[in-house]
Amino acid sequence: VVQDIPSLDIERRKIHFFVGPNGAGKTMMMGLLSLLSPPTEGKLVFDGVPVFPSGRSSPKGMRKVTLVSQDPYLFDATVLANATYGLRRQGLPGREARAAAAEMLSLVGLRGMEDRKARTLSGGEGKRLAIARALALRPEVMLLDEPTANVDAANVRIVEDLLREAHARFRTTIVATT
User: Fold this and answer.
1) How far is Cα 166 from Cα 138, in angstroms, rounded to an integer?
2) pLDDT tens across 42-74, in order?
3) How many helices (H) and strands (E) does the chain have?
4) pLDDT tens digits, residue range 14-35?
5) What's the CA gap between 6 and 21, in Å, rounded?
6) What's the CA angle centered on 4, arms 25 and 7, to 5 degrees?
7) What is the pTM of this model?
8) Is residue 42 helix, strand or coil?
9) What is the pLDDT of residues 126-165, one digit of tens each?
10) Reported confidence tier of residue 1, pLDDT bands at 50, 70, 90
11) Is 19 exposed, middle or buried (0-12, 13-18, 19+ CB in 10 A)?
């Protein structure tokens, strides 16, 4: 259980997995590591800086970490609009956001689907879209909560290969649960 971990260091530019049964605290750990949930005790440090000083969230580091949840939310919009969402929120101009998103959609095998409604994708395609949206931000750390849950065997293989490719290409630290 998460509260039983006295210390944890995540090594940069490596792929890490948390493995455990349902209820073991893997998703709770993802909430902490994504800098979205403060710890109830102890401290969380990112790049040597406490993340939640005085009980407040520090925006420093939050743009360096992205989370792909077990059931990623897809907006009622096109695949391309979903893939550019984070980039547009960060203020990247439209043309640059579309180019970066298109590159990631190609990487995840969704090239040619840019104009499709995201919510019409299969479960595996939706997960790959969420991964593309996350990778487009070029995070230092990418967290994936059960990235292969509820997808068919073919998409499991695609997602696993995709994570290895993303790690090799971008040297992103990857932390996943299973």
Assistant:
1) 10
2) 888 888 888 876 655 554 567 789 999 999 999
3) 5, 6
4) 999 999 998 888 998 998 898 8
5) 20
6) 105
7) 0.89
8) coil
9) 999 999 999 999 999 999 999 999 888 988 999 999 999 9
10) very low
11) exposed
By the 8 A CB rule, do 72 and 123 touch?
no
Q: Which of 11, 5, 74, 29 is nearest to 178 (CA)?
A: 29
Which residue, chain included where needed, has tokens 């998409």? 155
As given in the structure block, the two tokens for residue 36 are: 């979205």
Q: Name the residue with tokens 């949840």.
A: 69
Element (H, E) at 65: strand 65-68
The residues, ordered by sequence, that sit 6+ positions from 17 with a Cβ below 8 Å of its Cβ are 175, 176, 177, 178
Gap between the Cα atoms of 41 and 161, Å rounded: 37
Nearest to 82 by CA among 34, 121, 127, 130: 130
Q: Which residues contact 43 (CB under 8 A, 6 or more apart)?
A: 50, 52
Question: Residue 131 has which token pair?
Answer: 């991964």
